[in-house]
Amino acid sequence: MRRIYLVALVLGFSARDLSTETLTLTTYYPAPYGVYTQLRSTRDSYLAYQGGNVGIGTNTPLTRLHVSGQSLWLTGGDSGGLSGAAGSGLRLYHDGSRGMMFAYDYSGLTSPHNLILQSPGGNVGIGELSPMYKLDVKGGIRMQGDLMVGTPPRKPMAVLTFRGSNGLVYYNTGVPYGTHFCFIGGFALPDGDIEENGTGYIARILCKKGATNWLCGGDFRSHNNNEEMRINVVCVRNELIDQSGWSNIE
Length: 250
What we know:
Layout: H1 2-13, E1 54-56, E2 65-67, E3 88-94, E4 99-105, E5 111-112, E6 124-126, E7 135-137, E8 157-166, E9 169-176, E10 180-188, E11 203-209, E12 213-220, E13 228-237
Parallel strand pairs: 1-2, 6-7
Antiparallel strand pairs: 3-4, 4-5, 8-13, 9-12, 10-13, 11-12
């Protein structure tokens, strides 16, 4: 209103000078313009909907919403889905008892999208302020589903069974020692008796490294050199085992 009064005052004192001029009067009402210490809206508000950025704590916003200085706090009871007009994006909300973050597509066939954390580098901590690994969890972990390790992704442990060969035999497991560590999980000797007066190992049941794969098996010293050796072999991904203390004991 002050601007309108000022223009009227100028017109009152210089009407003769403006008799042949065109006067354009611009008002920003009801759109607020200028610097305010506080703004309140009782209905929907639209910011920078025709372009530009919105800054909170900064007068040089670099993105559509740029928050600088303090944290961003979400409260309330938001929950449920959005309309298809929302399209795809990242959603953050608090439903009154828990905070949620997920990537989703609400347009057409609604479906979740992948959510990537720290793709360029750095680590992620859960309950840990100084994470030392890509995912550093301080506390217990509950998992429902498969645990996959390595590239290509595979289950971290495999159990194999070998039988049918007699005498001293090491079964080729087909499992490379470059990816797994294998050890005997159990064995059975269907027949035989130990030859007390012989020489060499009384018994040897172990896994050792072949050219590329783990070889597992063994034998025991008996009066008959053709007893069958049956074994169970457990192979674990190298990422899960410290092999620094291992050596071939044969």
